[in-house]
Structures are given as structure tokens and as C-alpha cells.
Design goal:
- With about 100 residues, the protein is mostly helical.
- The protein has four helices and no strands.
- Helix 1 (about 15-25) runs parallel beside helix 2 (about 40-60), helix 2 (about 40-60) packs antiparallel against helix 3 and helix 2 (about 40-60) packs across helix 4 (about 85-95).
- It is globular, with a radius of gyration of 12 Å.
């Protein structure tokens, strides 16, 4: 999945437009997540959640390929957004793909 190549070393994705284009989606906001003051960080959050949701929906049978990539992304998300229910955000985003 080319999506893997877009992940940054730190564990996040930041090119939301490219991810949306790859998936044929138009996710710009995640319900339940208030707008963040730092728009760059908000973009990384949405792009990362969207990438994880895409793995769950589009590459379920290849989870052995992306599971460690997901773990790194989840660790980045938890360290930067400790008060957000990540499981809920991922599940909501899966419905948009």
C-alpha cells in the first residue's frame, strides 16, 4: 500500500490531500474532535487517523504488513493528543472511507 510510504519517521502522516486522493475520500474533519489551535497539528491528526482507518478498511488482510506502522502512529497520536478517544475517532473515520 503506497500509503505506508507517506508516513513520516515520527509516526504521523501529514499530506491529508494526498491521502484523500488515494482513497477517493474527502475527510477534512473528524466528529468529536474540536478544532485545534495549531492547524498544522490538526492536519497531521486527521491525516494519521485517516491513514489508520484506511488500513483497517482497505487492507485488513494485510495487517501483518502494517500493524507495526499503525503502532508507531498510535504512539505518536497518544503522545500528542492524550485527551482524545483515538479508537472512537478511528471508528468514525472508517465509516467515511
Amino acid at each position: 500500500m503506497n500509503l505506508i510510504k507517506l508516513q513520516k519517521f515520527e509516526g504521523y502522516w501529514d499530506d491529508l490531500d494526498k491521502i484523500n486522493k488515494m482513497l477517493g475520500s474527502n475527510v477534512q474533519k473528524i466528529d468529536g474532535v474540536d478544532s485545534l489551535q495549531n492547524k498544522e497539528l490538526e492536519n497531521k491528526f486527521i491525516a494519521t487517523i485517516l491513514a489508520i482507518a484506511a488500513f483497517h478498511i482497505r487492507a485488513q488482510s494485510e495487517s501483518n504488513t502494517w500493524s507495526m506502522i499503525e503502532q508507531k502512529a498510535i504512539a505518536w497520536l497518544k503522545s500528542n493528543f492524550p485527551n482524545i478517544d483515538l479508537d472512537k475517532a478511528i471508528k468514525q473515520t472508517e465509516k467515511l472511507i
